[in-house]
Amino acid sequence: MAKIELKVCPLCGGDEKESFAQKGDRQILRCKSCGLAYVDAQPGPDDLYVLYNERYFESEEFRGNTCIGYYAYVDERPLLLEHFGKKLNFIKNFKKKGRILDIGCGHGFFLEVAEKGRFEAKGVDVSSYAVEYAKKHGLDAFLGALSEAKFPDSSFDVVTIFETIEHFPNPLTELKEVFRILKPDGLVLITTPNENGYLRKFMRKNLFTYRHQEHLYFFSPKTMRNLLQRVGFEKIEFMPDQVRTYPLKHLLGGVKYYFKNPVLNKLANLAGAAPGPLRQLRVPFPLDTLVVYAFKPKGDRLE
Predict the structure, then answer these.
(1) 265 and 74 Cβ atoms separated by less than 8 Å
(2) Which of 3, 13, 47, 241 is the most buried (most CB within 10 A)?
(3) What residues does 102 pair with on adjacent strands?
(4) The whole model's pTM is what?
(5) What are the angstrom distances between the C-alpha of 282 and each of 22, 107, 245, 249?
(6) Which of 91, 113, 92, 214 is CA-nearest to residue 160?
């Protein structure tokens, strides 16, 4: 696998950095100028995108205690539809209808919700497995990176980026493309793990999100605001995320992945063998997610 070494900070161009965590062969650096945390050296896009196969979304099917993605993504569809419904309700505070693009759309569950909410919904994703699923269910999903979709200028009223910006090989370049395709006064809504939240303060360099091979960048409110401002967005606001619920069996699957401890794994296995209704019990779990929204100015001033 080819690695790309980053000579300077991808956000501010600073060349002074410090290493503060090592996860396997992944070195995580922090820019001394702007504070951005990122992986160096990084996999190339082709090496990165090959990760997002069926195993990534359905690790339970592969007895995947070490899978980097989701335990059983399709099984979570009812809970995800509920979660995305809350996100759409928030969007409707600003945009009642129009064209919406979901970047990293996966199986298209947010697209389902948006279409029912009277939006014309499109998605893009680099996972052929996920895009194929979305298309089979009648959803408009493009296979590839956003730049490859070649949408016209000012195409969308809203762009959503849920738990995806940390995967981008170059978030600054990606957001410039988002800015281009948004209409003036268009809305971007982003969620990503909070690199300066309570979990980071508690877990320090052992933060969950540092372990994912596909996570390349780790944003705090400060670095996210810096990123959005550099692109040209304005009226940048942060808000707490809604607490999500998960089936108990999915949380137990996460125990095996995150805590490679024989005692905890044994307890997880015992609980996983409990009767079906117990394993399907819905458990609220706060993920300490960073949620930010911003607007493209009415007068386009992309730098």
Answers:
(1) no
(2) 241
(3) 123, 160
(4) 0.90
(5) 34, 22, 6, 9
(6) 91
The overall longest dimension of the chain from CA atoms, in Å, is: 59
Structure tokens at 29: 């650096």
Residue boundaries of the structural domains of the chain: 3-243+286-295, 246-282
63-108 pLDDT per residue, tens: 554 456 777 789 889 989 999 999 999 999 999 999 999 999 999 9
Contact call for residues 196 and 209 (beta carbons, < 8 A) = no
What's the rounded Cα separation, in Å, for the pair 270 and 200?
30
Residue ranges in the chain assigned as alpha helix (H) = 45-49, 54-57, 77-91, 109-116, 128-136, 146-149, 171-181, 198-203, 221-231, 248-258, 262-272, 276-279
Please tell us whether the domain made up of 3-243+286-295 is placed in CATH 3.40.140.10: no
Residue 255 phi, psi dihedral angles, 5° rounding: -55, -40
In percent, the amount of the chain with pLDDT more than 90 equals 58
> pLDDT of 98-152, one tens digit each?
999 999 999 999 999 999 999 999 999 999 999 999 999 999 999 999 999 999 9
